[in-house]
Design goal:
Elements: H1 3-20, H2 26-61
Amino acid sequence: MSQINKLVQYIVDSKNEVKKVTWPTRKEVKQHTILVIFISLSVALFLGVVDFFLTKVIEKII
């Protein structure tokens, strides 16, 4: 099989696989996006607080 034929077959197979995908609805995407943002902000806040207190502890030790 030539390189061109392999490439064409790859594209055809990829197109067929994409047709099988179950895409999320707009509502699901919105909910998941909000969830990811909330979790990211929560983790950032938690790490910020931990960093602040650890910095204060180390300053007192030094």
